[in-house]
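Reagents: none. Just compute today. MOSC domain-containing protein.
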Amino acid sequence: MERKRNRGRIGHPMKILALCTGNPERLPGKSYKTGIFKHPVNGAVMIDAEGLVGDAICNRKHHGGVDQAVYVEGSLTLDWWAQELGRPYEAGTFGENMVISDLDNRDVAVGDRFAAGDLILEVTACRMPCATFAARMADPKFVKRYTAAARPGIYCRVIRGGVVEPGMPMEYTPFSGDKIAMPELMETFGRRLQGADRARYLAAPIHYKLRTMLESQADEAY
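Predicted 3D structure written out:
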């Protein structure tokens, strides 16, 4: 029987299972360094507008920034991947900064908020896999596999910073507007949106790069 959707949102309190940071490391066979190698941190971590303090972000053209400050994975999604790939993974293997318990990435939408202590995160975008991710997973076909799974990771901006640590309870607040879930955002990535769909996206607190792209489409329509 399929696991009931929305677990963790209704009747299941969430908590921070892991916080992960990394240092610049070189991928085997590559000339560049990457911050994708994340490892769990023991103890408290400060999260500010740029993300987890002390976490390495090497390619700032495509990673990091205020609308992509914290990368979140849900524990239910990571459990699914462990079963799919036939082996467990340490938190941080996907390059995530935070693992939240009882959360399925497919249930998360743009504008949803997560709060722990003083920290407030707001969802802005989904994770789009790249060649660095495939190299990290030692699978040249992993980009296609990850895309086909339609369970993308979650990027958040920091509405209010704070100090958090594993085990802290996490409060979830859904976006009050029209829902743009992570799988839909992945499916429409790079596509031209028309009329009502474009208006729906622009009404949500999406990543500024996607907003700029959609606004330029609107300008071109006139």
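The first strand starts at residue 14 and ends at 22.
Action item: order primers for follow-up constructs.
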